[in-house]
Structures are given as C-alpha cells and as structure tokens.
Amino acid sequence: MRSAHFKTGWIFLWITVVVFIVDRLTKELARIYLDPYVPIAVIPSLNFTLAYNTGAAFSFLNTGSFWPNILFGSITAVISIIIIKWLYSLPRQEYMINTALTLILGGALGNLWDRIQFHHVIDFIDCYVNSWHWPIFNVADAAVSIGAVLLMGHWFRARVYSTRE
C-alpha cells in the first residue's frame, strides 16, 4: 500500500528541492564570479550584478540593518511550516495550488538559507529598460513571484467557478 503522503501535495515537494538547488547554485556562482555592484552585461536589458539584500524580496526594506533580516527570516520560517502543513492537507490532483505552494516554499527556503548563512540575501539578476532598473533579484525571488501568481490564479479560478454554480 502506498504511503499517505503520495496522495497529498507532498508529492510536489520535488519542485521545492529543484528551486532550492538551482537557487543555491546560481547564488554561489554569482558570489564566485561577480564583483559586488559591478554589472556584467548578459543580453540587452539584462545584467548580472551581485548585490546584498537585508530586506524582503526585490529589496523591499533593504535598510542595511539587522532587524529586517531577523523579521523576514522569522516570517519565512513560520510561512514555510504553514505551507508544508497545507501541502499535506491538499490532494495531489490540485496541480496549480500544489505547484504554486512548492515554488513559494523553494524560494522562501533559498532566501532563508542566505539569511542564516550570510545575514543577507544574495541577488544578482538585474533587469532594466533604458535607465530604469527593476530591483535586483534572484532565482528564489522569481520562484516566489511565479508561485504567488499561480496561487492568485487558483483563487481567481475557484472564485469564478463558485459564482457560476
């Protein structure tokens, strides 16, 4: 008989592992090969620029002080536990929400690892148009953002279907 966790959203945790590994690898490569705050052009509108962020995703509250690091690290740990419990309560057939949650979890754990190890998050993806630059981000931030969009899509779809009945 198959274990109960194969019938739940836990079967999607492989996505979390992949996101975490890709995030760790890319951040380590950025630390090794990039000089802090020196942009390296990759393609038009994309640089790799090593930056350190003590704030939240996309440099929100990046003040350079230690308190945001503790605050966001604590929030991330609590949210990660909630997501793991939530995944266990979801049936594996709920593909969109399970994928969304595991993307968010993988990104959250990737940035939490940085906060614990370095006391800041390593960012390096620098997108821009002309002289306007999006805040520098990383693979974990991208995974959290994609997961959040999928989660909103799931809720929107659920709301639309519930109003049709």
Rough outline = globular
Number of strands: 4
Main β sheet profile: 4 strands, antiparallel
Mean pLDDT: 89
Beta-strand percent range: 5-15%
Topology pattern, helix = H, strand = E? HEEHHEEH
For the termini, the CA-CA separation is 37 Å
Structural class: alpha+beta
Q: Helical element count?
A: 4
Low-confidence stretches are: none
Q: In total, how many domains does the architecture comprise?
A: 1
**Which value, in Å, is the CA radius of gyration?**
18 Å
List the helices and strands and how they pair.
Layout: H1 13-33, E1 40-43, E2 46-53, H2 67-89, H3 95-118, E3 121-129, E4 132-133, H4 139-164
Antiparallel strand pairs: 1-2, 2-3, 3-4
Please name the defining characteristics of this protein:
4 helices, single chain, alpha+beta, 165 residues, 4-stranded antiparallel sheet
What can you tell me about this protein's structure?
A hairpin with a 2-residue loop joins strand 3 and strand 4. This protein is α+β, with helices and mostly antiparallel strands. Strands 1-2-3-4 form a four-stranded antiparallel β-sheet. The longest helix has 26 residues, at 139-164. It is built from four helices and four strands, in the order H-E-E-H-H-E-E-H. Helix 1 packs parallel to helix 3 and helix 2 (67-89) packs antiparallel against helix 3. It has helices spanning 13-33, 67-89, 95-118, 139-164, and strands at residues 40-43, 46-53, 121-129, 132-133. The chain has one domain (4-164).
